[in-house]
Amino acid sequence: MKLSDGTLRKLVERGDIEFVPGLTDQQWQPCSVDLRLGTSFQSPGKPRLITSSYKLHPGEFVLGCTQERVRLGRAFMGQVEGRSTWARRGLQVHAAGLVDPGFDGELTLELVNLGSFPLALSAGERICQMTIERLDWPAVRPYGHAALGSKYQHQIGATSASEHE
């Protein structure tokens, strides 16, 4: 079951879920939270770029990241989707979809411009939304558990798979 804004606020107050920096009133939605675009971008085979804006051309793929560091307790999982405002401009936002229980770090976003015109992406813009669900039981081996080899725990910035191969 997806959690409502009221439940999410209580879980944040209790420390079961954390967003750093904290969320603004505008980021709270009825059953999700909007996450903002960070300043780290990485194109395949190129070095990471730190900038407050990025022009994404039609057909281009780039990794970005959230401004917020997200921490989920062992009893919660998240799902990340693009926002409709951006989708209607042709931007597809994906974050490998699932945020595992126990994850702690900035989320890497896969960004693709499916439209016909370049898109100006600016740090701080609400780029995606995250829904959170409560698990039936806390994860026994949450993300970051030594037996899992969790590659992206505590990641900062857009993180490519090649950095962990």
Number of helices: 2
The CATH topology is: Deoxyuridine 5'-Triphosphate Nucleotidohydrolase, Chain A
* Spatial strand order of the main sheet: 1-6-10-8
SSE class: mainly beta
CATH architecture: Distorted Sandwich
> In the CATH hierarchy, what is the class?
Mainly Beta
Total of domains: 1
Residue windows where pLDDT falls under 50 for at least 5 positions? none
Basic shape: globular
**Biggest sheet architecture:** 4 strands, antiparallel
Radius of gyration: 16 Å
Distance between the first and last residues' Cα = 35 Å
Mean pLDDT: 91
Q: Please tally the β strands and state the result.
A: 12
Order of helices and strands: HEEEEEEEHEEEEE
Helix proportion range? under 10%
Strand content: 35-45%
CATH-wise, what's the superfamily?
Deoxyuridine triphosphatase (dUTPase)
Features:
single chain; four-stranded antiparallel sheet; 8% helix; Deoxyuridine 5'-Triphosphate Nucleotidohydrolase, Chain A; 2 helices; 165 residues; globular; mainly beta
How does the SSE layout of this entry go?
Layout: H1 5-14, E1 17-20, E2 33-36, E3 40-41, E4 49-50, E5 53-56, E6 61-72, E7 76-82, H2 84-87, E8 91-94, E9 98-99, E10 104-113, E11 119-122, E12 126-134
Tell me what the structure shows.
This protein has 165 residues and is mainly β. It has one domain: Deoxyuridine 5'-Triphosphate Nucleotidohydrolase, Chain A, CATH 2.70.40.10. It has 2 helices and 12 strands; from the N terminus they run αβββββββαβββββ. The chain has helices at 5-14, 84-87; strands spanning 17-20, 33-36, 40-41, 49-50, 53-56, 61-72, 76-82, 91-94, 98-99, 104-113, 119-122, 126-134. The strands form 4 sheets. The chain has a 4-stranded antiparallel beta sheet. A 4-stranded antiparallel beta sheet has the order 2-12-7-9. Strands 3-4 form a two-stranded antiparallel sheet. It starts with a helix and ends in a 31-residue tail after the last strand. The model has no long low-confidence stretch (mean pLDDT 91).
